[in-house]
Amino acid sequence: MDLVEGGDFEAQSTWYLGLANEACARVTQLTEDGAPRLVIDVEH
């Protein structure tokens, strides 16, 4: 598995996630504690 930053432009970031096999993923946005965060949960 590999994670590479593709860059950022005008407050948007791009990331590439490479997996060895097909997998299910769940994306969740957390807004607690004042700072929004994006969580990507990948099945292993």
Report on the structure:
- This protein has 44 residues and is mainly β.
- The chain has one domain.
- It has strands spanning 2-9, 12-18, 25-30, 37-42.
- β1 (2-9) and β2 form a beta hairpin.
- The protein is flat, with a radius of gyration of 13 Å.
> What best-fitting shape do the alpha-carbon axes yield?
flat
Strand content: over 45%
Radius of gyration: 13 Å
Given the structure, what is the number of helices? 0
Write the H/E string, N to C: EEEE
Bin the helical content: under 10%
Structural class: mainly beta
What's the quaternary structure here? single chain
Give the overall pLDDT as a whole number. 88
The description of the largest β-sheet is: 2 strands, antiparallel
Which strand order spans the largest sheet, edge to edge or round the barrel? 1-2
Number of strands: 4
Low-confidence stretches: none
Distance between the termini: 10 Å
How many structural domains in the coordinates? 1
